[in-house]
Amino acid sequence: CYPNMICVLTTGIAVTFCIILPCLACLKILVLNRKWRRGSQKVIGFFHPYCNAGGGGERVLWCAVRAIQESHPGVKCVVYTGDITSTASQILNKASSTFGITLSNSVDFVFLRRRRWVEATRYPILTLLGQSMGSVWLGVEALLACPPDVFLDTMGYAFTLPLFKYIGGCRTGCYVHYPTISTDMLNVVECQNDSFNNRKLIARSKLLTKCKLIYYRAFAFMYGVAGRCSEAVLTNSSWTLNHINQIWKCQQITSIVFPPCDISGFLEIPLTRKPTQDILGEKYEGKLIVLSIAQFRPEKNHSLQVESFHKFLSICEDPSKHLLLMVGGCRNEGDESRVAELKSLISKLNLQEKVEIRTNISFGELKDLLSVAHVGIHTMSNEHFGIGVVEFQAAGVIALANNSGGPKMDIVKEIQGCQTGFLAHDVTTYSEALRDIYSLTVEKRTEILGSARAACKRFSEQEFKQHFLAAISPVLVSRPKTE
Ligand SMILES: *[C@@H]1O[C@H](CO)[C@@H](O)[C@H](O)[C@H]1NC(C)=O
Ligand SMILES: *[C@@H]1O[C@H](CO)[C@@H](O)[C@H](O)[C@H]1NC(C)=O
Ligand SMILES: *[C@@H]1O[C@H](CO)[C@@H](O)[C@H](O)[C@H]1NC(C)=O
Ligand SMILES: *[C@@H]1O[C@H](CO)[C@@H](O)[C@H](O)[C@H]1NC(C)=O
Ligand SMILES: *[C@@H]1O[C@H](CO)[C@@H](O)[C@H](O)[C@H]1NC(C)=O
To answer: Which GO annotations describe the biological process of this protein (predicted)?
Structure first.
């Protein structure tokens, strides 16, 4: 056994010294050469290989680029993207049409051809490791094409951070939406549950579970090492912050910068409620509306809403006045069968006259409903964020949300000692909260609505800009020469 070990060790050392180190040294020389030829204008590189996707992560990217452009006019912003089928102006136009964010033309794009190396489908096994190594390979392409002075990873490719820090000589920062691996995922494997990250085959076998755990732990360790190469770590919520702190163990440099949410349309809605009949028709005259907005997905727990409302009717003063209106998208047959189940629950509880379901309504209708509703109900456990709850707050609807996850940690928080909504956790507490909300005095109600509207502005674009710039300011200054 011993000679074998020695053999493996010497080979390892030999490979490191004769192949890996010289390669890295060559890469570093190439990068330094490019940097020197590039001139002296400061370059900030945003690593966002899917920058044309038009999702929430892209809104963060464009708001971040705009914040830098507005506050540091002399700096050049470069976006590394793999969207080689689009042109720079197409990408900028899409940012403007999707998010209403216009950027000056001084943003440059570096188009990367190796994006297929980070696609999950490429790695049927060891997906996390494969994608991470792929991202380094993609990062090398980015680094050689345009070495930046400051490198910001905005898509969660943490393994690019050491590359840019040590080979590229960059200051580094990252914005994390979601941890690549979390302690939750480790627990699923440890408890031998089958889940999206754990196949039945592995869950059934003790040996395979052991191997997978070793792999996950090793990966989590490397993920932490890579993450700590970042000098500023920005996370999008308390949930993400907690997970990153657990795995990266770098509390001193992490902070929360909430992503910018587009709530301007909801802020226009007056706080005083419009008469229900004006919006919904004569039939609804004098009705007080509890509004639920959620796709008909299982985790949203619509049945809890119906049951809580049923119980509320039995304890409120005048049950004839109240109406529960459930709206949401129906994506597929699964959702439709859930709606059917919900309808049968409604008739079982004899609530046909008191509960209404509307699917696939338009944005205009949604705004109308938000201008008449008094209470907005949300019943999903451990939601990472809960944009719907923010929309209630913005629209002047009193939010009643589940006491966990984002609503608890980030959204329905007191500001300046004033309540911004209600939290509950089961049929009894939801029904009692509904009763309490409808017994609020006008003054108290106005106070809650006012502070809720103030609170939701923490998720506005202006707040994002301010906090983003503050959080990355340490990496925007050049490193002192002596270092
Ligand atoms: C943070 O990002 C994750 C993943 O995209 C998302 O599920 C979550 O809602 C985001 N949080 C906020 C505050 O937008
Ligand atoms: C694994 O499954 C069991 C039973 O379904 C459940 O009680 C447990 O909480 C699960 N553990 C994790 C970490 O998901
Ligand atoms: C709702 O819209 C989706 C697609 O947007 C469609 O597939 C579905 O059939 C619609 N459902 C209903 C009930 O209208
Ligand atoms: C809501 O939050 C509590 C935690 O206080 C949790 O135990 C409960 O199951 C959650 N879920 C729902 C749907 O109420
Ligand atoms: C819905 O909420 C109730 C009460 O909190 C809980 O017991 C139940 O498990 C939840 N159902 C789902 C699908 O989350």
So the answer is: dolichol-linked oligosaccharide biosynthetic process
